[in-house]
Amino acid sequence: MSVSTFVEDGGLASLLGKGAQTLARDTALTEPAVLAAVRDVLKAAFSDRPELLDPFAAATERNSEVIRVLRQAIAAQRQRSGVLARVPVDSETLLALFAATLGWGPAQRYLDDSNVNEVKIIGRRIRVQEAGKPFVTVAEAFGSDREVIDRVKMMSSVLGVRLDADKPQATIPLSRGTRMHASIPPRTHDQALVCIRRGREVAWDVSDVLKRDTLSREVADLLLLLCRARCSILIAGRTGSGKTGLLEALANSWPGDGHIISIEDHTSEIGIRRPEWTREMVDAIRDPQVFGQVTREALRQTPDLLLPGEIRGSEAGAILRMVLSDHPVITTLHARTCEEALEQFASCAALPGAYMYESRRDDALRDACGGFDVVIKVDFWEAAGRRVVTDIALCNGSVHEDGAIRPRLVPLVTIDVLPSGDITWMTHAAIGTDGLLQWTQSATDLTPALLREKLVRARSQAAIRGHATTLDAVQEALTRAEHLLLRSEVERALATLRAAWSQRHDDRLLSMAQRTLGQNPACFATLIAEGEAQGAALRRLIEARRWTEANEAWTQIGADLAHAAIAAPVGGWHTIDTEIREGLALHAAAAAACSEAELALGAGQSRVARDVLKPFGDADLPADVALSIVRLREQALRSLLHSGEGAATALETIIARREALEHEIAQAASTRQS
Fold first, then answer.
1. Least confident of 11-20, 249-258, 302-311, 403-412
2. Which residues have a Cβ under 8 Å from the Cβ of 444 and sit 6 or more positions away?
3. Residue 368 contacts residue 346 (beta carbons within 8 Å)
């Protein structure tokens, strides 16, 4: 029988030394020798699996490994004696020991909560930001400032990042796009500041940003138009405002299947869905010039889209050279306004060692204003707990004012907050039927000439792509996916099918996607969970006869092949599509009948109102529309009874139905609020 079997079976007495007793959990958690031994065991075990040290690592996987490693070590020491021999082996104690050593103590429960986006440790205090909510300081706290300093220094040591008195600030690279930044004394006075921001498990596109109320549908459509025009875009905002998330969303909404190159410094934050993606990593801390060098090399790699992560210094010169060579670029930097973003970019491009623009700020600013097409400003509004696009401006060259060069910008989108507190976006142009911008408050076309040329070119390319989207193109995607599946390259196979689906919804792509997902479900666990959740939500909307919301949900599911394949109902999507269309038509007819009946009742024509509403039952209508019909019927029948027509029993039936619907709606509202 193995040692671990004794531990699991509870046969511990024979393994303990004579007179030894198991420690109480609280004692084990406060005994320095036990904590030191646990720390050493876990560090050794996780040395080749640093992803388990990510504070935001999947708790289930990490916890099972922690329990396995510690039980094995405890069992071994019970055979040959050791400080761990008396440690309890229940899961709760072992996980508490992890939190107290390699984990993050009182902050660990928040790090394990998938709803938490960011955890900030300020001295002993812990601040937490959940999705859709502002930061709050929680009740838990570390025992001392020293405890936090020691913990972050230990983690940096394990991960090979220098953090000490001579280098008291560092970004610590973690898995899953998690960003961790630490500051310790003497940079800070006597305590540590640790900021841990969760990376995204799933790559976003514009629809994902839209779902998070970062922008409106109209703004999203404008951004998609700018992507189709292959615009170079500069995204500005402060730390934590959502710059990288928007960059990723735009890249994943880029047209076609071109080659994308991303350049990131130290942390893998950007996620791209397509297989034609090259991720290049640099360490600008150790070599400040490397970012610019790698960007210059990208000039020779001819990417269809270049994504330099965040502009911090002289690499801006090489990026500007890429922009001027008509290679689309999306990048980010810290700035408070769209105009300031271009000014800051030019200042970086003119820094010592910058490619082409060293000490030539005016030239850099002039070229940046002519090279970038769009500047987007994003912000995080703590009080609302939302990241929002606050401004979008089109670059229209530069002007010379008061002896200085200034960017000339054309506002495209601005944000406003209504007295009610609701956020609204003002779009100064809409997408015309010709695929160009139609300005809403000006008879003059304000579109910059270079952008207009790109929009015209995009319209032409869209027409070409439309003619090229044939059954043969779908067949080519199916054939390629088949070969990839034979090589077990399931992710590339799905990406190939998704690209074809974005141009043509073909049932054969759907079937092949279902087969691809089924070949390796574990690889697509997140996608499968999303698709199943979306399918369940759609079924609930259909059962509730909420046709407008059901149509929006169906459209969202159908936009992505993977989700459509996972959520596909028995009988196929055409049955759902037909049911929703019929429901929407009935909804529209019922709403029109309600308006007509209201007019008739206002004119004293109760019989006309009754007859207009007669064709509509309420079984297939949304509860609110059904309630409107029943109330109008009740009003008409009361009027008819008052004039000596109709039956009182019919009125009683209608009143009972009206009360039932009111109760149903109130219950549904209460459920949504809870």
1. 11-20
2. none
3. yes
